[in-house]
Amino acid sequence: MKRCVVLLTVFMVFAASIASGQEQTGALEGRVSDASGAVLPGVTVVLSGPSLPGGPRTAVTTVAGAYRLTNVPIGTYSVALELEGFATKTYEGIRIQAGLTFALNAELGVAGVEQSVTVVGEAPIIDQAKAAVSFTFTKELLSTVPNARDVWAIVTQTPGVSSNAVNVGGSQTGNQLSFRGHGVDPRQNTYVLDGANITDSQNNGASQFYLDVDSFDEVQLSVSSHNAEVQTPGMVVISCRNRARTCSRVEAASTSPERTSPPTTWTATCGAGAWTSRARCSSTMTSA
Description:
about 290 residues, 3 domains, Ferric Hydroxamate Uptake Protein, Chain A, domain 1, five-stranded mixed sheet, mainly beta
């Protein structure tokens, strides 16, 4: 009996280490200089966005003008760079993806004229800080691509991955398709949800349950050169991350959700009491 307890403890520790090893956040880094190209130490970098728990995060550039913010939840952010004697510069639309590093180098001008820059695009296709080859489908992309609403429909959109069937007109909806990356045995594929391995132990290469892309912030497929926590080479790793918990109010004649703060008498059920008639709760929920 004692031996069984020891083995169970070892298994639980091992399982926890696998789950915690899956990357669920990204990073932002860069270098700040002036108009002449000289590096600027002491610049305050402020990262702001609704995905940040506890409010904005800050970093200060080093003597080499470099900064780095790690463990940033996936989402879209704004970045402000401030230094006395220089104009504040703001970047909008910085999209942080799980496991990737967004490189943002900036140049500050003299004080007097503040600048605002809207960034179009996301993390670079080739992340110099990471060896893995992966492809990320954000919630914005997932909502616009005319595909069936499950992860298996987007597998065929990934270079190097082939499937045994195509979901045409919903003909395969509800079925898990078999797929392989670069010809590798599909039974080696792995599914990860919010850092936890959800691959079916009785049916290798399959998920334990149906995965609806509308409930995710992003879906990432890693097809080769995986991170260190992935021990089997060649397999496809599908990582899904649930959407942030929000509650929205929708007017009867409007198709645009309006984010609102919950009433002071908030209960465990979204929209309890008089709020029910005008509130809609998403797949997950927190107060705005």
